[in-house]
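Technical note accompanying the year-one report. For the benefit of new consortium partners, we illustrate the data format agreed upon in the data management plan: each record pairs a sequence with a structure-token string. No post-processing was applied to the example shown here.
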Amino acid sequence: MVQRRTFLKSVVAAIIPFLFPRWLRARIPALAPDAVSAPEQAQLRELAAVVLPASLGRAGTDAVADQFAKWIRNYKPGADLGYGYGFTQPRVAPPSPAGGYPGQLAALEAAAKAKGNSFARLDRAGQREIVGAALEQAKISDVPRRPGGAHVAADLMSFFFYGPGGEDFLYNAAIHRDECRGLPDSPRRPARLR
């Protein structure tokens, strides 16, 4: 009897993914907790305009916010990260850092409302003051090497500054460190961005 139940449980567990396709599961919030809603996407864009370099322009900061949201949606906890240099055990991706982002974005909005306006309608100085206070409260003094969930503002900066886009921005060159230029292109200097 026990073996029959175990067999039936395994058959049902194997069939469920086929009964509920990925597109349906992505629309069920309980099964897709790290999906970024449209209001959160707008908040991420406003936050990016505050914490990222102004020289990117609004289109540039919006693009980084959109890439960050895409990274959140595609994040796979437990994914194989390989061994890495000097590691004898394979590394796996930690749990998604995005679990606290909705609450952190809501707290930024609440702090703005306490000042009499929405976060998007505050002037830059007011927005920076709110973000600075939130980072202080989260005890963040440095930009983390990778997004870790301590605060969405720090993770957004980490995503940009330690990612390939930040490196290109820093050196003002199309380095594209995660892309292989091939041997024929290796002696050429990367093209300037601006």
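Partners are asked to follow this layout when depositing records. Residues 23-33 have pLDDT under 50 and may be disordered.
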